[in-house]
Amino acid sequence: MERKHDGPEERRRLSFDSRWILLGFLAVAAFFLFTEHRAHLFGFLPYAILLLCPLMHVFHGHGTHGNRGENDRPAQHEHGEKKP
User: Fold this and answer.
1) How far apart are CA 84 and CA 66, in angstroms?
2) pTM score, two decimals?
3) Please, are residues 82 and 76 in contact by the beta-carbon 8 Å criterion?
4) For residue range 31-79, what is the model confidence (pLDDT) as tens digits?
């Protein structure tokens, strides 16, 4: 016998259902990975913070933020107030 429900609508519905099944499986897998390996993950965090310092200097550079020259000062009003 032929299946009459093998059109594009049926394929789209199956694709939608399979996405939900995949998302559910990934959520369960992520939960168990997090709960079983939490000690390893949290044990690595202090070292990750220490590694971030040199990485920020490598990718951001040193002294590029907050350093202004004499000509880069914000303009002041006559009464000594800074402009917003």
Assistant:
1) 17
2) 0.39
3) yes
4) 999 899 888 888 888 898 898 888 888 887 666 555 555 555 555 555 6
